[in-house]
UniProtKB/TrEMBL annotation:
This is nicotinamidase. It comes from the Bacteria. PANTHER family: LD05707P, PYRAZINAMIDASE/NICOTINAMIDASE. It comes from Sphingobacterium corticis. Belongs to the isochorismatase family. Gene3D superfamilies: Isochorismatase-like. InterPro entries: Isochorismatase-like_dom (IPR000868), Isochorismatase-like_sf (IPR036380), Isochorismatase_Nicotinamidase (IPR052347). The gene is pncA. Keywords: Hydrolase, Metal-binding, Pyridine nucleotide biosynthesis. It holds the Pfam family Isochorismatase. Residues 3-193 form the Isochorismatase-like domain. GO terms for molecular function: nicotinamidase activity. Pathway: Cofactor biosynthesis; nicotinate biosynthesis; nicotinate from nicotinamide: step 1/1. Its EC number is 3.5.1.19.
Length: 196
């Protein structure tokens, strides 16, 4: 059984959003067209409290995109984005969600960021996604969405680690930084992942 995991197709990651991925909206029709090919379709939402620790606005001496230590973990300082119950956190209305059976929210604890759909960045708290997929007899997981170099990539690594055959659908993902993604993509392939 195969599942499609749609990562963070939310207003704040789309053109005009606070952490927009260049041409991020161009993948939405592709994702919509893919869904009918899967036994299960699920999605994620970044879902941050307004005072999330990853936000540069919470640290007066840190600039957006600086690297810093957040409670012992390396962290990128992001612009405020995907704040709970705001339009920026909403899934794009252009995304067809009729086949989406579940939405897993991440980044809900202000002390720790959560790129992966499976765990927070310190792997202290699980979203329950692994168990959900196993209960549905999923053996193969294909990932798409935003952004390829962060949330898609780290979700794909955790999917491999959980034992799923894992692939990233290149035509249905976009990266914040293509150079960073090229290095990460090589690492993912070396671990046994596939790029479709």
């Amino acid at each position: 059984m195969r599942a499609l995991l749609i990562i963070d197709v939310q207003h704040d990651f789309l053109p005009g959003g606070s952490l927009a991925v260049t041409d991020g909206d161009s993948i939405i029709p592709v994702i919509n067209g893919l869904q009918k090919n899967y036994d299960l379709v699920i999605a994620t939402q970044d879902w941050h409290p307004a005072d999330h620790g990853s936000f540069a606005s919470q640290h007066p001496d840190i600039n957006v995109f600086d690297q810093f230590d957040l409670y012992g973990l390396e962290q990128v300082a992001w612009p405020d984005h995907c704040i709970q119950n705001t339009e920026g956190a909403d899934l794009s209305p252009l995304l067809n969600t009729q086949l989406v059976e579940a939405i897993f929210r991440k980044g809900t604890s202000k002390e720790i960021d959560s790129y992966s759909a499976f765990f927070d960045n310190g792997k202290k708290k699980s979203t329950g996604l692994t168990g959900y997929l196993r209960e549905r007899d999923i053996t193969e997981l294909h990932l798409c969405g935003l952004a390829a170099d962060y949330c898609v990539y780290f979700s794909a690594l955790d999917s491999l680690e959980a034992g799923f055959q894992t692939a990233i659908i290149s035509k249905a993902t976009k990266a914040i930084d293509k150079t960073i993604y090229m290095d990460k993509k090589e690492h993912f392939l070396q671990l046994g992942g596939k790029i479709l």
